[in-house]
Design a protein that fits this description.
Radius of gyration of chain A: 36 Å
CATH class of the largest domain in chain B: Mainly Alpha
Oligomer: heterodimer
Mean pLDDT of chain B: 82
Number of domains of chain A: 4
Order of helices and strands of chain B: HEEHHHHHHHHH
CATH topology of the largest domain in chain B: Cytochrome Bc1 Complex, Chain D, domain 2
Strand order of the largest sheet of chain B: 1-2
Number of helices of chain B: 10
Number of strands of chain A: 2
Helix content of chain A: 40-55%
Largest sheet of chain B: 2 strands, antiparallel
Strand content of chain B: under 5%
Strand content of chain A: under 5%
Largest interface: A-B, 81 and 80 residues
Largest sheet of chain A: 2 strands, antiparallel
Distance between the termini of chain B: 97 Å
Strand order of the largest sheet of chain A: 1-2
Shape of chain A: flat
CATH topology of the largest domain in chain A: Cytochrome Bc1 Complex, Chain D, domain 2
CATH architecture of the largest domain in chain A: Orthogonal Bundle
CATH superfamily of the largest domain in chain B: Cytochrome c-like domain
Number of helices of chain A: 23
Radius of gyration of chain B: 28 Å
CATH class of the largest domain in chain A: Mainly Alpha
Number of domains of chain B: 2
Helix content of chain B: 25-40%
Number of strands of chain B: 2
Structural class of chain B: mainly alpha
Distance between the termini of chain A: 77 Å
Order of helices and strands of chain A: HHHHHHHHHHHHHHHHEEHHHHHHH
CATH superfamily of the largest domain in chain A: Cytochrome c-like domain
Chain lengths: 443, 243
Amino acid sequence: MEISNIQSLKRIKSLAFAALIFSFAAFSNFASAQGEGLFKAKCATCHMTHKNSTGPKLSGVRAKWESGGAKEGSIYQWVNNWQTAAANDPYAAEVAKWSPTAMSAFPDLKKEDIDAILDWVDAQPDPSMATASNPSNPLSPNTPVEEESNSWIWIIMGVIFVVVIMAVGGVRRQLKIATSDDDIEAEKMTYGEELRALAWKYRLQVGLVSLVVIISIIVALFQSLYSINIMEGYQPSQPIAFPHSQHAGINGIDCKYCHNTVTKSKSASIPSVNVCMNCHKQIDGAGKPFEGQIKKIYAAAGWDKEGMAYTGKTKPIVWNKVHVLPEHVYFNHSQHVVVGGLDCKQCHGDMTQQSETVKVQPVEELNKIEGNIKLTRKTLTMGWCIECHGKKDVAIGNGKNAYYDEVHRRLKKDPKLYAQYLNNDGKVTVNELGGWECAKCHY
Amino acid sequence: MKKIVYTAFSGAALTMSLFLNSCVSNSDSPGLEYAPDMYRTPSIETYVDYGEVRGRINENIKGRLTAMTPPRNTIPFYGTDSSEVQLMMPYFRKPNIAFRETHGLYGWDYSTADEYTLAVADKNPLLLNANNADVVIAKGKELFTAMCQHCHGEKGDGNGPMVASGAYAGVPNYVGLAATEGQMFYSIYYGKGNMGAHGSILNKKEIWTIVHYIRRLQDANYGKFDASGAAVVANVSDTTNAN
């Protein structure tokens, strides 16, 4: 097998890296550990080894300063206090223009400490090269695959079948006429008369078939009537393929971080793009399959990745609303989450497992989740709401909500009613406190 | 005669189309809708595109709807309790002009001074005392868990699940952090370094509550009071004596 030039170069490079790392491991194990610790404690907030961040990348920074014509030792002075260095060294003064954000002063770092940090930084392999040689990434982007609609194929096939049947019938009829002895009688019969005669001849079969057809029409009619306003499985396409499993699952971000008005308002809120940028300013997905998706965030936020600056030119991200209730229904998230103490997954399912953006989960899926109240009616229908209001208990008299404490106080005054509430299921449910009143949701 | 044929034919076609219809599922469609004018409200609701209302199309606003931050200088309604309302008033410190490029804070009033440094002496207006400390700290923990811990970590050591999964790097440890509570507030509100501005998703009371909890993470005795009602940690009295 022949090894191409690039491959052999890569090998040499990786060997060189290995040798470099080995030499560091062998000779300066202690110093390197110290450098790593100091880097993470002091520098990592603003600096990354191979990528510009709040501060510039630090890999090879000493060599860069040296070749740039910086004075001897001025880089150490810079770390201790950049203003002193900038005053003494024109190169440092030039470096100060890199970003308007001033670097913090670290007067307690000695020259050996700074060297230990920079030695450790220089020993780190470039992660972008690692991804280039290993393109297989477990996290693939969930590009919505355009589902080919089958209905046209069926219609075309149906038309072809009808044409074939009619053609065969026509040929058969022609043949019959041609071979018939009594051609006068055959000629008299029209298509309709022939069909009627045929139907009469096979009246049992025809009757059964028409019965089946009529019943299926009725069933289909009722099925389509029952599907009106059932939104289970509704999953509109979204401008950005946002995997909830990555954000809420692997990275452990709380639902309330992005949907932060859920405890305060009727709507749970779609995060504005600045919330995305709180993490994605650093996570640019360079070289990963989802880089294109993150570029859409940058375009919306007006973030110039190369210049590491916001341009102020923003663009809307038009998300599509998924859980839609009709106008005549009032639903309030904060009431259910804060007062009712419901978890998001009761209605939205386990988003930490969902690789797609979001869809209306069928009730069967919701019932599989541990801790959920088990319901039978279809999601986002009135029956579903009513059923839950009949099962969910209200935490009254725990001192957390003045309104329900008052309800509790009055119920205690009326032990008969209280006992009646508790008798059915041992708890005071939402419907017993008026949760089934029409005006609770419709007004 | 012909009529029967037509009836039979159209009946078959109807059946076929109904059956075919039920086979096709389009996840982009919310399904069949009855009386759409009862569903699509002409009154203003969140995240609804009003580019098309009851068949009338307004090209100027169609497809331009996006999630936005609260308008600047608006304050949340916080009852009529004057001390709470005072806490909700717009933050008096301004961002530096550089925050436009570093944190995308365009369209603000800017300060030429280094307000982060000036914030060093700002005191937490949410006073802790022996009665409310536990409630405030518990609320702070709740907010911290939802808003901060994915990066900063449950213990504030800068090793949250985002950092642990390798997605994000460079989160400082709270212990040994050289920032006063006023600077913590400023950093949360306007952002600092890689951290974005959180003023749009947390109100001032919530931020000050989180600041209390961060100080508890730095010092396990912060916000604890002994039997006489005196603060265990000396500098907590800074806050009780403020204002």
